[in-house]
């Protein structure tokens, strides 16, 4: 498929990673430029660099990463011609259909080729992928793309409506993947194309439950067994590096300290009030009372309270009168410790909630005639 | 049995595993015991395709047709008149046991139970079906062979003992194999403390082509018990898989080995000579495996380990090629969160991302399709990053906004694309389509994306 050499050569396909959500495919062509909002580059700058290199722009502002294509990166970067399959669905389908080196696989429709590239990687040149697309322009584009990616030797693209015209194959495929609006119409054709000398498998990819139900009865009618259905998703997590959450004892200490300060202040006000009964003193006292709401009983004692300077307005701030509050709050408790941090994760706020239902079924080799005779003679009473 | 001989792996052969109960078939053993279901002759199964269902009758197998989905007529029946605790089944447990011992077929026992069941006719058709299924599962001696595909083997081990596979469910396993870009001919490093599930997946996808070096915590080669259930043949494993341990995978460590270069007069017997030759071969192999690892350039690193993943990354990432994938699995998000935070601080890790897999299976029956009532709560977490060749001189787009603004005010036109003049003057930054391929994405993203450094 793609280059496996260490370094990028002229003509190679690369994936340009601009940001996590913005990847672009590029065919490296000496003499061409690559311009993006992350700077301007010459293709010739990439040639000779190892795949996976960070490249600074010619102006020195901005950089990009030039990566080796993989089917997974291709899925993120490819030009969308249709709704595409993503890695979670592709991976589960490839595993269930038991696609591996040398497998013979049918795919319809080709769409944007996201699944095709993944299958091509797994089956290798000794395998075979027959891909069908009923939309002519899309078929042509996909065909060109497969050729450009060195897949033409073992990937065949046919412009054909498989629901009407089938696959032109008999007893050849190990597995079939149908991503069609009406897969039930293609099920009998799929049965014809599948090998009968071993257990083979089919997957139908449909977004709607109604499609699933029709597909299930078509599969059952065609003699497929072990019909089952899955739904799979990926939940990306946001990771944050945050300070360890403070214990409530910290906030309790703060509150206690504030309480102590308030009490000291109240005592001062009382003392000030008692010393003089000047008319403007009354006024001042009322004003302060409004400030901090300390209107407790005036007769309370004031342990250890020092003489405040008359006329000096007190604040509730932390720095005030620490000498007086020592007895109430030990200052050591408020000494800041070194902030330790932890990593926490949660699912990102918005995730893909549904892609499609994956309906799987198995086609067993036909039973030998003798077994069928037995089954007729002794019909299973319980089913 | 088929007269035509299909490819080896598609048929049950001696020593292959099958069933939800893994059982190994040996011709020599002659019989296979399936517990409650009883015994049968192994030869009955050898040469059969996978997936068929059998009834055990006198240690022989009777082939059954595959079960099809029976359409069930909907009726007006409800459970209105069915009460719990009512005496509905006059057939006693002892009587049933006696019937079983007398060799009465399961279907006949069930038929009898249905006939005697007081409320059977009140049941809905769905409920009747469920009742029969339950009874069948209880009395029948049928079993189905299941092909040991990666999917089935993973499901079997996950259901059997998910701790041993570190919560790796099949959706997670398949995603790991894809994220690590496992392909025939690739070169990989794996740390598999999940009983060999990861190694099995990688080996199957490599198909006997390429190299896989695993690092284990054992002195002798690791056991990887799951590999044994994969029906691998020698060509799939031997040329591909080599194992080192955390001591031999340490470049600064010199393995202590007995001397192998003895002068001829020191060798006293042929036995001693052959022993020394063996030892020498083992040492040569160890040294060549170490050299291969230390030479680096591996396509991906896959980790599912009981040890601190960061310590593993520090040791093994230097051996991964640029653009290679690093995939770390853990049953715990917290562990991978810590790793991701550390990765983000180092520019050699591109786009570290933590994800959680989600899988839901459905019961699909006509008129009764719904998600399974019970399902696995977790399939594990996956952290993926790409190793890149950092260029410290390349800087981000700081000052980009100012630059862009200036460009806009001074010059509304776009620069000529493909200009081969080497003028180093700053060019206004715009996306110019180079390739049909990128047209629509570029335009779509241009509109709503804020410039940010490409990390």
TrEMBL record, chain A:
Keywords: Methyltransferase, Nucleus, S-adenosyl-L-methionine, Transferase, tRNA processing. It catalyses: adenosine(58) in tRNA + S-adenosyl-L-methionine = N(1)-methyladenosine(58) in tRNA + S-adenosyl-L-homocysteine + H(+). CDD domains: AdoMet_MTases. It comes from the Eukaryota. It is an enzyme of class 2 (transferase). Residues 62-362 form the tRNA (adenine(58)-N(1))-methyltransferase catalytic subunit TRM61 C-terminal domain. Gene3D superfamilies: 3.10.330.20, Vaccinia Virus protein VP39. Residues 260-327 are annotated as: Disordered. The keyword S-adenosyl-L-methionine applies. Residues 275-288, 309-318 have a biased composition (Basic and acidic residues). The keyword Acetylation does not apply. It is found in: Nucleus. Pfam families: GCD14. Its EC number is 2.1.1.220. Coiled coil: none annotated. Belongs to the class I-like SAM-binding methyltransferase superfamily. TRM61 family. Catalytic subunit of tRNA (adenine-N(1)-)-methyltransferase, which catalyzes the formation of N(1)-methyladenine at position 58 (m1A58) in initiator methionyl-tRNA. This is tRNA (adenine(58)-N(1))-methyltransferase catalytic subunit TRM61. The lineage of its organism: Eukaryota, Fungi, Dikarya, Basidiomycota, Agaricomycotina.
UniProtKB/TrEMBL annotation, chain B:
PANTHER family: TRANSLATION INITIATION FACTOR EIF3-RELATED, TRNA (ADENINE(58)-N(1))-METHYLTRANSFERASE NON-CATALYTIC SUBUNIT TRM6. This is tRNA (adenine(58)-N(1))-methyltransferase non-catalytic subunit TRM6. Pfam families: Gcd10p (PF04189). Residues 412-426 have a biased composition (Low complexity). Residues 401-426 are annotated as: Disordered. Keywords: Nucleus, tRNA processing. Its main location: nucleus. It is found in: Nucleus. It comes from the Eukaryota. The lineage of its organism: Eukaryota, Fungi, Dikarya, Basidiomycota, Agaricomycotina. Belongs to the TRM6/GCD10 family.
């Amino acid at each position: 498929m793609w280059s496996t050499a260490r370094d990028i050569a002229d003509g190679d396909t690369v994936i340009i990673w601009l940001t996590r959500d913005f990847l672009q495919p590029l065919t490296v062509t000496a003499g061409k430029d690559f311009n993006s909002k992350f700077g301007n580059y010459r293709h010739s700058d990439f040639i000779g660099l190892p795949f996976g290199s960070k490249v600074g722009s010619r102006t020195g502002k901005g950089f990009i990463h030039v990566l080796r294509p993989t089917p997974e990166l291709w899925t993120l970067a490819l030009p969308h011609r249709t709704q595409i399959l993503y890695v979670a669905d592709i991976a589960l389908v490839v595993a269930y259909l038991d696609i591996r080196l040398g497998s013979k696989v049918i795919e319809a429709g080709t769409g944007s080729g996201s699944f095709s590239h993944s299958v091509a990687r797994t089956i290798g040149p000794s395998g075979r992928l027959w891909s069908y697309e009923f939309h002519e322009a899309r078929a042509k584009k996909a065909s060109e793309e497969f050729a450009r990616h060195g897949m033409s030797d073992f990937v065949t693209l046919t412009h054909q409506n498989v629901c009407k015209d089938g696959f032109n194959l008999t007893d050849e495929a190990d597995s079939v993947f149908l991503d069609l609006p009406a897969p039930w119409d293609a099920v009998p054709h799929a049965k014809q194309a599948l090998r009968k000398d071993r257990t083979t498998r089919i997957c139908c990819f449909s977004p709607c439950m109604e499609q699933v139900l029709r597909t299930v009865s078509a599969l059952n009618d065609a003699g497929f067994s072990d019909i089952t259905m899955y739904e799979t998703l990926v939940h990306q997590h946001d990771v944050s590096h945050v300070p360890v959450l403070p214990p409530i004892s910290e906030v309790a200490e703060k509150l206690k300290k504030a309480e102590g300060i308030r009490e000291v202040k109240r005592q001062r006000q009382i003392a000030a009030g008692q010393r003089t009964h000047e008319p403007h003193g009354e006024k001042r006292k009322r004003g302060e009372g409004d400030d901090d709401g300390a209107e407790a009983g005036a007769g309370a004692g004031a342990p250890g309270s020092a003489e405040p300077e008359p006329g000096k307005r007190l604040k509730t701030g932390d720095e005030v009168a620490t000498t007086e509050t020592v007895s109430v709050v030990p200052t050591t408790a408020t000494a800041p410790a070194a902030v330790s941090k932890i990593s926490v994760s949660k699912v990102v706020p918005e995730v893909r909630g549904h892609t499609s239902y994956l309906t799987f079924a198995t086609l067993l080799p036909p039973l030998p005639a003798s077994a069928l005779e037995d089954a007729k003679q002794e019909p299973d009473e319980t089913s | 049995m088929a007269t035509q001989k299909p490819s080896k792996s598609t048929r049950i052969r001696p020593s292959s595993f099958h069933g939800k109960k893994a059982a190994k078939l040996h011709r020599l053993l002659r019989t296979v015991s399936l517990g409650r279901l009883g015994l049968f002759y192994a030869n009955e199964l050898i040469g059969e395709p996978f997936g068929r269902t059998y009834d055990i009758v006198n240690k022989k197998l009777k082939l059954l047709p595959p079960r099809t989905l029976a359409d069930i007529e909907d009726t007006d029946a409800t459970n209105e008149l069915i009460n719990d605790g009512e005496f509905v089944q006059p057939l006693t447990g002892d009587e049933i046991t006696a019937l079983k011992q007398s060799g009465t077929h399961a279907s006949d026992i069930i038929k009898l139970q249905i006939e005697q069941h007081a409320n059977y006719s009140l049941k809905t058709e769905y409920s009747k079906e469920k009742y029969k299924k339950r009874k069948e599962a209880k009395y029948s001696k049928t079993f189905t062979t299941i092909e040991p595909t990666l999917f089935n083997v993973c499901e079997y081990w996950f259901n059997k003992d998910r701790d041993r596979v570190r919560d790796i469910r099949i959706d997670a396993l398949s995603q790991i194999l894809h994220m690590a870009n496992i392909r025939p001919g690739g070169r990989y490093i794996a740390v598999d403390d999940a009983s060999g599930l990861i190694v099995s997946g990688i080996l199957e996808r490599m198909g006997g082509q390429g190299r896989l070096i695993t690092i284990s915590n054992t002195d002798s080669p690791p056991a990887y018990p799951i590999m044994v259930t994969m029906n691998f043949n020698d060509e799939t494993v031997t040329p591909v898989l080599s194992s080192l341990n955390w001591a031999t995978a340490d470049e600064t460590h010199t393995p202590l080995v007995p001397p192998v270069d003895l002068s001829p007069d020191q060798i006293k017997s042929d036995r001693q000579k052959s022993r020394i030759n063996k030892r020498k071969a083992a040492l040569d192999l160890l040294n060549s495996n170490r050299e291969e690892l230390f030479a680096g350039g591996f396509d991906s690193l896959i980790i599912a380990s009981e040890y601190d993943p960061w310590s593993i990354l520090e040791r093994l990432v230097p051996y991964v090629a640029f653009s290679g994938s690093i995939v770390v699995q853990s049953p715990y998000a917290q562990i991978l969160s810590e790793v991701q935070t550390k990765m983000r601080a180092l520019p050699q890790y591109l786009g570290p991302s933590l994800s959680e897999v989600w899988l839901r299976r459905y019961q699909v029956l006509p008129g009764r399709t719904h998600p399974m009532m019970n399902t696995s709560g977790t399939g594990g977490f996956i952290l993926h990053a790409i190793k890149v060749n950092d260029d410290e001189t390349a800087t981000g787009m700081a000052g980009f906004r100012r630059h862009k603004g200036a460009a806009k005010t001074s010059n509304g036109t776009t620069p000529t694309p493909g200009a081969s003049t080497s003028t180093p003057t700053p060019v206004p930054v715009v996306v110019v389509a180079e390739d049909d391929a990128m047209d629509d994405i570029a335009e779509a993203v241009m509109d709503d994306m804020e410039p940010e450094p490409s990390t």
